[in-house]
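Consider this record:
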Amino acid sequence: MQPYLLFQQLKARSLRENSTVCPPNATICNGTSCVLPEDNFNKILNTILSTVLTIMLAMVMFSMGCNVELKKFWGHVKRPWGIFVGFLCQFGIMPLTGFVLSVAFNVLPIQAVAVLIMGCCPGGTASNILAYWVDGDMDLSVSMTTCSTLLAMGMMPLCLFVYTKMWTDADSIVLPYDSIGISLVALVIPVSFGMYVNHRWPQKAKIILKVGSIVGAVLIVLIAVVAGILYKGSWIISPKLWIIGTIFPAAGYSLGFLLARIAGLSWNRCRTVALETGMQNTQLCTTIVQLSFSPEQLELMFTFPLIYSIFQLLFALILLAGYRIYKRHRGKMKTDDKKTEEDAKSKSASSHANGGFISNETK
């Protein structure tokens, strides 16, 4: 996720009031539904939070780079089977899933377009942090995020043209290429420095990685909480979008893992591809929506990127908890097996020492 995009371009909020009278400063008024301009306090708070979170994200991505080895990273680039599988998931499965969900739930055309924009976005940087926590392939994770962000320059217009033409003219959707470029730079530069540190000072890199992984986990939760608080007045939205926002990330994780396994990738790479598929760049989606639609249209689907962001994080944490429980249980089983094997060897040694005789006490 790119937090500096989270707060900068949200120029209007949807606010539902109990009374039938809209505030005098409302820009759009429709019964009990009002769209209010952002106040000065929120603008200042957004700027401060955006700056702090951007710096924190850069530090976290630097620490993630400390776990990337240049040889392995370059190996993925030269033999890009894992990257290709991730590409199919990112720009094949996700847009198609968004299209199917929009048709199945028969949402309004403008809402369907918002869902499809989310499906066409590249992977978010939060996937790199979570890939570390589930013992994924960090080299593959970083290379996939970098490639998907770079390829989004061409794949997003193509996917939107293919899937949105039954609802709207694809030319009406404004793609912020500058924001995509900033996302790419914000990922590549800190990670590159981290890779250099890992190459020159591997022991120090391990310490940086441990600290950064913890900060990264806190940062993901912090962004979600802050976004929910700042835009708490915008949470009244169509129930269909809530359902789609719940199903969509779960489908992304599941289908990404399944396709990676069918493609013959190892288990740790399957986990990596799953996270890269389901964990979308929701801030980029928010920016596109803001640039492409009027305040009246925004009222119908403005909150969908935030809903998706909440549930993609929730399901990712569930996956993480499940993996950690499995890992602990598996480690305990291995310890028990090792202990049994050592006991058997001890009995065998005792048997040889007694000329092959084993007493009842040792059985």
